[in-house]
């Protein structure tokens, strides 16, 4: 019997194929993962910390109350609806050239009432629209 007591070869572990497989799995997970926003976030609107523009163009102010009432300037509209609001906006825009529509919506106003104002502005041909906010206490 021939017993060798010589050097023993250490088993070699090649890590490069293992790392390649892990990188492929990582890339696959990154491409297939979707990031969703939690819908249970509390949002308090409107507040902003923006400076007023130095030169203000002619403005048409539309106020939207929490109960859905709408006022164009100082005139509270008795009729509800997009077409009645569009007529009031056309009359106000006739007196001003390239007027800026400022929407002052209550924070508790429904989204639909604000969308109705935007639809009426489109029907009246007003293209410059902005939203009025109050200055907040600062970003958290």
UniProtKB/TrEMBL annotation:
TM region(s), chain numbering: 12-31
Recorded superkingdom: Bacteria
Record has Aminoacyl-tRNA synthetase as a keyword: no
Subcellular localization(s) per the UniProt record: Cell membrane
InterPro entries in the cross-refs: ExbD
Keywords from the named record: Cell membrane, Membrane, Protein transport, Transmembrane, Transmembrane helix, Transport
A GO MF term: transmembrane transporter activity
Membrane topology of this protein: Single-pass membrane protein; Single-pass type II membrane protein
GO CC annotation: plasma membrane
Predominant location category: membrane
An example Gene Ontology biological process: protein transport
Family: Belongs to the ExbD/TolR family.
Protein name: Biopolymer transport protein ExbD
Organism: Tepidimonas alkaliphilus
């Amino acid at each position: 019997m021939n017993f060798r007591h010589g050097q023993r070869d250490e088993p070699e572990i090649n890590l490069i194929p293992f790392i390649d497989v892990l990188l492929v799995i990582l890339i696959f997970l990154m491409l297939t993962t979707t990031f969703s926003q939690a819908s249970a976030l509390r949002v308090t609107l409107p507040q902003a910390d923006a400076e007023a523009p130095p030169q203000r163009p002619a403005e048409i102010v539309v106020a939207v109350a929490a109960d859905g009432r709408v006022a164009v300037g100082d005139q509270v509209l008795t009729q509800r609806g997009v077409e009645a609001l569009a007529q009031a906006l056309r009359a106000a825009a006739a007196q001003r050239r390239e007027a800026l529509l400022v929407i002052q919506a209550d924070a508790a106003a429904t989204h639909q009432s604000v969308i109705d104002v935007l639809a009426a502005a489109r029907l009246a041909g007003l293209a410059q629209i902005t939203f009025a906010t109050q200055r907040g206490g600062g970003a958290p």
